[in-house]
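Regression report. Comparing outputs from two consecutive submissions.

Submission 1:
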Amino acid sequence: MQPISARQSGPQSPPMPFAQRGAEQVFRFPMYAPKNPEHLLLLEGTIFRPDDDEPHPVVIINHGMPFGGDFHALERYRFAAASQWFVNHGWAVVVPMRRGYGASEGECVEGTGGSDNPDFYLAGQSTANDIAAVIAYVRTLPFVDPARVVVLGQSAGAWGTLAVAGRNPPGVIAAIAFAPGRGGDRPGDICKPERLIATAQRFGTTAKMPLLWLSSENDLLFNTALSRDLFQAYSSHGAPAEFVSLSAYGRDGHQVFKEDAGLPVWQPRVERFLRGCGAWPDNCSVQDLKQSGKYNEQS
């Protein structure tokens, strides 16, 4: 592969072996900031996929938000165990770093505005803007089936996933949210939870895609009671969603998806959900989606 320009989107490294029959490759995803649509920003990330030339369903995994520190100093998130599990079952996996994280350009725009007057809606939509840009780009790749996209997020990335679900973007057929929420300055201390609940309802009002909401019994940031209240608000206007209470994981269930050891805890429920909504590689095709009514004709 020829050297890549510092300002070029697309693959940034040759494919490297991954998992049993997969490949891993560093990518840059292009996006244009909503407030400055002529300004190109490049988001760093990783794509894992089966090592063949066939189009595959794709899951886009969206990371959370640290409590503090220099976000640009973060290494690329890989979610190695989850990525390997998906690839081994026929999925392509995209793990982007949003604006302000790692080597992604720009600054983080996901702040809530402070604990006194947090704007959880704007924070979620800001996250969703980055996710939407990645969705639009990966749907153009030859090894991705543009009609079979699943968005998955953890913590702040899951909050952005709820916002994406409320937009119903073309090609996205399901969403998975691990412990979605915002407003946690430290574990167990959520500012304005009633405002967070109202915002979850706002996201769910327009959502039409199936969504799986997972919460661990010992989540130290968003406890089970708050998570259930958020879920009830999100689904109160008919958003097709399922709540799953996962068994306690380690010292803090908030990390169940982020840590490799959490895979056995969530894998059966995620696979069951994806099979149930027709998104699993061996039971999903465009024709199947059309017959089930899940296919977005804008795809």
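Submission 2:
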Amino acid sequence: MAVSPPIDDHTEALDLTVRGFLFCLRRDLEGRLTLAAPHLEGYGAFALDWSSADVQRRIAGGRKQLLAKAIGLHKKPTLKVFDATAGLGRDGYTLAALGASVTLAERNPVLAALLRDAHRRALGLNLLRDAAGRMQLVEQDNTTDLGSAAAGTDVIYLDPMYPDDGKRALPSKEMQILRDLTGGDPDGDALLKAALATRTSRVVVKRPSKAPWLADAKPNLSMEGTQARFDIYLG
């Protein structure tokens, strides 16, 4: 998605139309970059906040929670993880808080700008600084650039968004806005194929519990939760 003018760390206000929808980027009174979608009535602007109760609750689950175990942090907390579908950065930050070094990769320039802003703010807060220091952000399309970008990492993590089929309820206003912004991740199959083509020893895919395997590729093992499943492919 091309954005003009570009979104950078000095952007104060920008309106852009994507997929026929208007989106508004603004700095709030706290200096946070926020995103709003005026076409969604009752949905206010939001900023990425890794100090939120939701993220802190995920971290409190420790290395025995499904996400951390699927990645392998219960055996080696210092793994290098390439989060190829960074999105809101919540899983990536959780993994960093549990000891991993995490590269957040995001191809959508609006989400990448929100992630940069969240990372900048996290580095300035005592509560978040250590984990944020183990994170870096790259803006790229991983269906084409994954091999070189993920070189040297231990695990590639994928959490592709479902395309909107009109049937599934969305869990939050943020995800509804993101779906309208991105249209979902209809090329999730291609992303998994790109990940499996790398020399990374483990690829982990987060899926809804009843969802089919990406690219119809059977994993070596799966870890089942009540709402999500982690499919694990070993190199």
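Expected: both submissions complete independently.
Actual: both completed, but the second showed a warning that disappeared on reload.
Relevant detail on submission 2: The beta strands are 13-18, 21-27, 33-36, 80-83, 101-106, 135-139, 155-158, 202-208, 221-224, 228-234.
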